[in-house]
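Reproducibility note. Readers wishing to regenerate the assembly model reported in the main text can use the exact inputs given here. Chain order matters: entities are listed in the order in which they were concatenated for prediction.
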Amino acid sequence: MNHLPLIIKREYLSKVKNKAFIIMTILSPLIFIALISVVAYLSQVNNDKVRVISILDESGQVQDAFESSNNITYTKLNGMSLKDAKSLVNETSGYGLLHIQDKEDIEGLSKAIKFYSKESPSLSVISKLENQIEDKLTLMNYDIVGIDVDEIEASKVYVNIFQENFSGETSSKTDSIIKLIFGGAAGYLLFMFIIIYGNMIMRSIIEEKTSRIIEVIVSSVKPVQLMLGKIIGTSLAGLTQFGIWIVLGSILLVVVSAIFGIDMAQMQTPQQAVIQQAMENPEVNSQIQDIMQGFFNLPLTNLILAFIFFFISGYLLYSSLYAAIGAAVDNETDTQQFMLPIIMPLILAVYIGIFTVIEDPHGTVSSVFSFIPLTSPVVMLMRIPFGVPIWQQLLSLGLLIATFVFTVWFAAKIYRVGILMYGKKPTYKELLKWIKY
Amino acid sequence: MDNLLEVKGASKKFGDFTALNNVSITVPKGSIYGLLGPNGAGKTTLIRIINQITLPDTGDVFLDGEPLKPSHIKDIGYLPEERGLYKSMKVGEQALYLAQLKGLSKSVAKERLKYWFDRLEIGDWWNKKIQELSKGMAQKIQFVVTVLHEPKLLIFDEPFSGFDPINANLIKDEILRLRENGATVIFSTHRMESVEELCDDIGLIHKSNKILDGKILDVKRAYKTNTFEVGIKTSDMMGLKIDLESKFNTAPASFKSLNDELKLNIKLSKSQNSNDLLNYLITKGDVSHFVELIPSVNDIFIQTVTENNLQ
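Running the prediction on these inputs yields the following structure tokens for the assembly.
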């Protein structure tokens, strides 16, 4: 008798109908969006504030360099003593006072600049001031030496190295970044999925033990069927939750940005602003094409297939281990001693993915770990966008599936004995003994 | 076939520990079989082997003449000692699920559940969760789930634990009714009075060996000691006592009676019979009490287990 569909259905429904599960499913995207909104709102508030900076330029040479912007207004103070200027700024509660002493040469000027303020000023304001002064002083220097600025601009050259492998596929630097993002996202997703839903499987098996229903069930169903049913049912519930998160998250993101009128462009960090400015240049415009190009250059079919297979096998491999742990212990506190051997290879895989695959996707370390079954799902998923020969992928997948079959067998053994053992905390030695029962 | 279940030479080891050592039992069709034994004797292991939860290392099990196979699961109903239900699942859903695992279709399961729920007057629990019910209520549901698929063989491990006397009686009557309808019952318990009351056959397992089995009456016959409990009224109690001690094997007895009388347990030797004793006693005084001592299951249990421990 095959009861697998029945068990999967019960496991799925009992997870999905669970109140905590429903609340988490709905609340998580809300919390996520709320966080983003708060950050966006705060940075907007910060940006809206106009800072008034007074400039007391005794040399009279630098003050034209400052152009007021949305956030900063410059007011020039002339013919005042430093002391008067300071007290004036303080009384009118201006943001600060930039004082430039009068010096003979540019070298002297560059060292005779001071910023006075009530509180310590923001880093971005200071660097903005510095940049403007530097530009101005540099221009003045050019002038003194007699260099034509226009000529310098005209003689600047931008370089973009084109990459091509020996079989004629072209790629570029942006390609590598895209590959990295895709690989990293896939690997990290698997990692998160294993941690969250592996734990859920473990807890649901412990629950079955503590509620003492297990013996009733195994008198009707083979333990292996029950275990597989639990793993598959919980995973489907997990996929449902993930799906809802993605859909709900995107909808909320759109709605929230529409309602609050948060312009995503305003959430920029300074770096993004630079990129945006740069995009207006024709040179960088070609980079957008590069990104599109890079996306379509990815081995998409391979990527999707590999993602599906490695994701499923890797996840099942780990979840069967989680199931074995759940069967071996009586309560959650006892799981700690067995968790470490599972978590270690997972974390190792992610670290290798981040530090090694990025640096050298086909180096020894990344290659080796993309074959070792416990780390291969994560590492291989990160490597594949960089182009891994099919035979390597198949070999790695074969090893993974063989190990998966082995761990399911192993877990089933532990499971079969463990679910009927109550009241004692097993050691590793006892677990090995159980296999022989 | 007269026997519904035959276990032949079942052995099971867990590592170095022998849980069952060459145990054979036969359970006649339509009987109630009491599986007895001290804690940790191996009863649960035997029951798990019959339920195909554990596989025996050696030995065979036959159900209704056929070697045990996976499809027999639907012919057996098992109420384990360690039992429980999914706490956060509704009663009705849960019962349906467990019934379907035993191979019933959803519609049939629903129909029978309705019948049983009405019968045990628990119909209004259908939409309650187990965690809202008391222990006894949950046990009732568990009982229903065990018998719902109308199995040929029912195995109850301590079925009355958690029940108040009224409900225990109710369940006892249901078990007897199921037997009348053709089911065979294996009954494992430490309550000897219910064994005495319900069982036709018993098997006693001790330290992973079967040390005793058979029809309960045969077992009692084998264990009776030809001892009679005697009460006799006479004017010379001391004289009669000394007289009887010289002729028979006697021991002081105690039983409740309204009279002030000589109370003795008299054990007859093989050459003596009860009529001789009675005739002799009649000549000595008024016999107010004359009963053959039949060993209770409790006595047999304690006696055999203690003897085995001494060996």
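We highlight two features of this model. Residues 50-155 of chain A form a domain with the D-Maltodextrin-Binding Protein; domain 2 fold (CATH 3.40.190.10). The longest helix of chain A spans residues 173-210.
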